[in-house]
Amino acid sequence: MTYRVCFVCTGNICRSPMAESVFRARVEEAGLDSQVEVDSAGTGSWHEGDGADPRTVSVLEANGYGSEHVARQFQDSWFARLDLVIALDSGHLRDLRRLAPTPEDAAKVRLLRSYDPAAGDDLDVPDPYYGGMDGFEECLEMLEAASPGLLAVVREHVEGQAA
Fold first, then answer.
1. Could you give phi then psi for residue 17, rounded to 5 degrees?
2. Max Cα-Cα span within the chain
3. I need a surface site. Which of 2, 32, 130, 151 has the fewest CB within 10 A?
4. pTM of the predicted model as reported, rounded to 2 decimal places
5. What are the residue numbers of the active site?
């Protein structure tokens, strides 16, 4: 059985495709790529069909990550097939939980930085879109810091499904 994770930000061109690439790399390194599916989406449709922001691509490629991506909007019908929906900030968390058809679906939505023990109380990944490259690099650092904790949770679920 495949475990499915979807990262969600606003337009699906900066934070969520970056999170998707980083986490997919961690899943592959852990040897779980045949059991875990990773993708991303946006809460809005503004950039649907577009590739990732060139700054996202640049930061990903400079750090050894893949960057193929086409933006899409999250649909409430996806909750039925997803195991975990990862919001990149508290606004996305609120929007996604409101969109969830059932309380069980709403419970699938988590903030990415909640998986980073060093994150403290500020669990939002700031939107780098209107800033410079340093914002994209900071975003990558936050995503990488949260990935081990998220991977541990996903691994636990995958191993539990196999038992």
1. -70, -30
2. 47
3. 130
4. 0.97
5. 9, 15, 127
